[in-house]
């Protein structure tokens, strides 16, 4: 019986030491996991900041590009409008000259008949 008690006490002491080691290891792993989580959280925040900055930069760049294209289109529209106005003025001038020549021709015919 005495040897059983001694054996039990030895096993209990060994088990207690193993439990203590495992508990210490578990706490160490928990601490490492928490530190890693904090590192990852910090890294994620940095990535979010970088992403937001890039997104803003791209939006600004796109906005400038859209304004540039819009300005080019407006300039082209203005040039086209001026060209159309010029062509209309030339056409009106040609029609006026044609009408004047027609009138001269009619007057010459009338003079010849008279």
> Largest sheet, described in full?
none
Count every helix, treating DSSP H or I runs of 4 or more residues as helices.
Answer: 1
Regions with pLDDT < 50 over 5+ consecutive residues?
A: none
**Total number of β-strand segments?**
0
Structural class: mainly alpha
- Give the mean pLDDT: 92
Shape: rod-shaped
The portion of residues assigned to helices is: over 70%
Radius of gyration: 48 Å
Order of helices and strands: H
Measured distance between first and last alpha carbons = 162 Å
Oligomeric grouping of the chains: single chain
Short description:
Helix content is 98%, strand content 0%.
Topology:
Elements: H1 2-113
Question: What does the model show?
Answer:
This protein has one helix at 2-113. It is mainly alpha-helical. The longest helix is centred in the middle third of the chain and has 112 residues, at 2-113. The mean pLDDT is 92.
Features:
mainly alpha; 1 helix; 0% strand
């Amino acid at each position: 019986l005495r040897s059983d008690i001694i054996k039990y006490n030895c096993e209990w002491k060994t088990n207690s030491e193993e439990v203590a080691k495992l508990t210490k290891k578990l706490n160490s792993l928990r601490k490492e996991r928490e530190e890693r989580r904090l590192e990852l959280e910090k890294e994620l925040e940095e990535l979010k900041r970088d992403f937001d900055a890039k997104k803003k930069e791209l939006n600004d760049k796109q906005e400038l590009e859209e304004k540039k294209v819009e300005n080019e289109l407006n300039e082209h529209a203005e040039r086209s409008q001026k060209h159309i106005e010029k062509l209309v003025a030339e056409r009106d001038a040609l029609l006026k000259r044609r009408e004047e020549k027609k009138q001269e021709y009619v007057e010459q015919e009338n003079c010849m008949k008279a």
